[in-house]
Specification:
Shape: elongated
Strand content: 15-25%
Number of strands: 7
Largest sheet: 5 strands, mixed
Number of helices: 7
Length: about 210
């Protein structure tokens, strides 16, 4: 069993040089800019609530996603076939418009001599999702993190997500989702492995 890597607990802001008071003042500025009065009764506690929400939404900056993969298991009776965790729900935010990205990730890998607890794969997804993102980068980060730490024969990641920067502004197109994939190792080189993974996650039939 490999020793666990240290993981930072997201109990404090990722950037301690910005205080809670400064964050709340920034929210008040945006409220005034939008035409509101931050001193209105219904908005008095909004700056505090928004700052606390940001601490939750962007807790990924205070974590080490690779640390979740530090504890592995080798007593798997020689199992070396495909492992897939599908429909990992996540929420992220578009780094261009700060609008929500809501979707699900499907993660698969071909182990060598060790496997990781399945909840840790979901935590890796959340660790990267809880940051400002573009979907292509998020997909690659998850795949490369698993590949770097577990050293499997291959990794596949597919993300299917809806971008609120497209549905609530701009072109206002609802019912549209974006699909990205990152295939590494055997998933990229072997068409049969890739096809098996895509068959397991079966995106189209489960929308």
């Amino acid at each position: 069993m490999s020793p666990p890597r240290k993981t930072i607990t997201p109990s404090k802001p990722a950037n301690p040089s910005v205080t809670q008071a400064q964050a709340e003042d920034a929210v008040r500025t945006l409220l005034r800019w939008s035409g509101e009065d931050p001193q209105r009764e219904g908005l008095l506690d909004t700056p505090k609530r928004v700052a606390e929400a940001y601490r939750d939404w962007f807790s990924g900056y205070s974590t080490d996603p690779a640390g979740y993969l530090g504890r592995t298991f080798e007593e798997v009776a020689g199992y070396d076939e495909l492992i897939v965790l599908r429909d990992i729900h996540f929420e992220s935010f578009c780094e261009h418009h700060m609008a929500p990205i809501i979707g699900r990730a499907h993660v698969g890998y071909l182990p060598t001599s060790k496997v990781v607890g399945i909840s840790k794969l979901a935590r890796v997804v959340d660790g990267f999702a809880r940051r400002f993102q573009v979907q292509e980068k998020l997909t690659a980060q998850i795949a490369h993190c698993i590949d770097d730490v577990l050293k499997p024969r291959g990794v596949g990641v597919v993300i299917d997500a809806v971008h609120q920067c497209m549905t609530t502004r701009g072109v206002h197109k609802t019912g549209v989702s974006m699909i990205t994939s990152q295939m590494l190792g055997t998933f990229r080189d072997d068409a049969r492995t890739r096809a098996e993974f895509l068959r397991f996650i079966d995106i189209d039939s489960r929308r």
